[in-house]
Amino acid sequence: MPFPAKLSPPSPADGRPGAVLRRFFGPRLNKDDQGDEGEGGRDTGLATKVRPKLKRPSMYRVLLLNDDFTPMDFVVHVLQDVFNKSTEDATRIMWHVHNHGVGECGVFPFEVAESKVTLVMDAARKNQHPLQCVMEKQ
37's torsion region: left (phi>0), alpha (psi -120 to 50) or beta? Predict the structure, then answer.
């Protein structure tokens, strides 16, 4: 029995019956599409999606370089603000930079490391300190 005019289903865009439902529920399998040799005589295999191998991003060490002019409390302040270090960790890193000439602030993906180096350099320039911050591939 056909639908009354008010309740008729929307007409499919491609003119085939059931196209509207297939758009929402996926294609319907025919006898030929079920994987075994049906009346069509063609052998169909299982279609699988090949996922590309993902590799971890390269990591970069962010390093502070020692100088004789930047105040130690400014270095501690930068380590706390930019790298979210606690007061104890920031002080330990600052003393390592002071005694060894260089100290590692953290290891990050490229974009994060680059932005942290920029933040440190901008803060040093704004406060007129010669503090240097670099990054190197780990």
Answer: beta
Written as six digits, the tokens of 51 are 């996922």
pLDDT in tens, 61-78: 999 999 999 999 999 999
What average pLDDT does this structure show over 79-85?
Answer: 97
The CA distance from 59 to 17, in Å, is 55
- Detail the DSSP E strand segments found in 66-127: 102-109
In order of 82, 112, 126, 133, the CA distances from 129 in angstroms are 16, 23, 8, 12
Per-residue pLDDT of 8-19, as tens digits, reads 555 555 556 555
**pTM score, two decimals?**
0.63
